[in-house]
Predict the structure.
Amino acid sequence: MGSGGPDWVTSTRTLESAKDTGKYGQVTINTVATLIRPADSGRQSCTLTNQSDKDVYLGLDNLVTVNTGMAFAAFSILVNARYTGPLYGIVASGSGKVGYIDF
């Protein structure tokens, strides 16, 4: 398209190819670091939903704790458009659930 406008054809092709390679699901998060998403160099975007009534603490490795992780508030959404490494979560007590969709 002309002068800096969006290239809708390319965007459509990207979305079409993403539906063939996308992944989605849910992970139960416990009081020990739980792998939410493994490393994936082909991942272009990841959307997470905290489907729990409690905060989930996120980290980049299995050493994450409720004191070191980033708080992912109950019933919230997080979109990550660049990170392709692993993502772990942990809860302070009981268990929680995180949904994901990767493209």
